[in-house]
Amino acid sequence: xxxxDNWEQWKDFLGDRLHHAQNEGMEQSTINxxxxxxxxxxxxxxxxxxxxxxxxxxxxxxxxPEEQHAIANMMLKLVQNDGTR
Length: 85
Prior knowledge:
This protein has a single domain, classed as Cytochrome Bc1 Complex, Chain D, domain 2, CATH 1.10.760. Helix content is about 75%, strand content about 0%. It has helices at about 5-25, 30-45, 50-60, 65-80. It is an all-alpha fold and about 80 residues long.
């Protein structure tokens, strides 16, 4: 089962990656840019596996680049308290 199949597992996975990047001293602006790039990759290359991902994919597809950055930043905020730390 892929981490993308379950929304809660996906959030935990993202939270773990976020905490790792922060613990390694990565600047927030770099983390934000990576989240945007990952969002773009997922939107173009990965089929949504659950309802939440379908909503995100739909929003991403109609968003301007600035709005896509906002979506990526909101995902970071959403997962900042998830994962194992």
